[in-house]
Amino acid sequence: MRNALILLALTTFIISCAPVSTLVYAPTNEAISLPSETFALTTPPINTPSLVATSIEAFEPTTTTFLPSVANSGDNTFRLPPLEASWQIQYNGEIDTSLDVDVFNLDLFDTHPSTIQALHKRDVFVMCYFSAGSYEEWRVDSDQFPAEVLGKDLEGWPGEKWIDIRRVDTLAPVMEARLNLAVAKDCDGVDPDNVNGYTNDTGFPLTYEDQIRYNVFLAEAAHLRGLSIGLKNDIEQVPDLIPYFDWLLNEECFFYQECGLLLPFVEAGKPAFVIEYELEPSEFCPQAISMNLNALRKNWELDAYRVDCRKWSDSP
């Protein structure tokens, strides 16, 4: 908490002392205008210019020591999912808010606040998904991405392109507006996807350090808004990013035989969530339980179908 207060004080100092020309972007509550038909907010949008309109240097991590930041300093001011959790992830089809789970992962844009409210009545932790490393042409804020940050197409995902994560000055208003939306919808945490662009053919010469810098920016921006945040699929950077992220979500680590890379999170008392699409539950559930991973068998379209390894292990 002490570090968080220092960060907030420094941010306020920068804003009050710097001339307008040194601010690299405007408050994000003005950076995106969402159509009224997208959703009906039941809580007013937040207005936090002191957390948003700051110099980009305030978010820049060290590229050598990767010291713990707001995420692990003092008492956390954001809710965390349990280490051992039953859960559901669903982006298509009718959401069953009565499902007996501890955690629900839902699409940030497509989920109505009333769905999140219904889950909160049963004390379900709600993760809200958005892509932080790609442009999706169908999103309501797609016009906020300038052409110069758009890279190559994501293979197998029509209408989606990689973005140049080195341009934090350009991308920060968009991503922070999305985080503000997560706060307005009362999400407990966020699940930013495609945060491993440096390992892919994005069209940009992204480096390991570029990805670290961008991912830490996302983590600190989430924590400043009282949101927990998960690390999605970027398992090669787990040793450097574990101080900043609160949980991990991985797709197909058993299929690719790389689940051991997730264990530092579990050993640190942070939950790890796994999705398998191709393997049968009998092929990975016993090992997932032994590794204390919260694993599901899901369809690729992420509909209501699920097999929860923790429940499956009780009656295989």
What do you see in this structure?
The protein has 316 residues and is α/β, with parallel strands linked by helices. It has one domain (2-28, 35-312): Alpha-Beta Barrel (TIM Barrel), CATH 3.20.20. It has helices at 2-17, 49-52, 113-121, 168-184, 208-224, 238-241, 263-267, 281-290, 309-312; strands spanning 87-89, 103-107, 125-131, 134-136, 150-153, 160-163, 189-193, 228-232, 247-251, 272-276, 294-297, 307-308. It has a 9-stranded mixed sheet with strand order 1-2-3-7-8-9-10-11-12. Strand 2, helix 3 and strand 3 form a beta-alpha-beta unit. The longest helix is centred in the middle third of the chain and has 17 residues, at 168-184. It is globular.
Which properties best describe this structure?
single chain; 316 residues; alpha/beta; TIM Barrel; three-stranded antiparallel β-sheet; 9 helices; 27% helix; globular; disordered N terminus
The CATH class turns out to be Alpha Beta
Enumerate how many helices there are, as a single number. 9
User: Averaged pLDDT, please?
Assistant: 82
Give the terminus-to-terminus CA distance.
44 Å
Return the domain count. 1
Largest sheet: 9 strands, mixed
Overall morphology: globular
Low-confidence residue ranges: 1-76
Strands in their spatial order, largest beta sheet: 1-2-3-7-8-9-10-11-12
Strand-residue proportion: 15-25%
Tell how many strands the DSSP assignment holds. Answer: 12
Structure class: alpha/beta
Which series of helices and strands comes N to C?
Answer: HHEEHEEEEHEHEHEHEHEEH
CATH-defined architecture: Alpha-Beta Barrel
CATH-defined topology: TIM Barrel
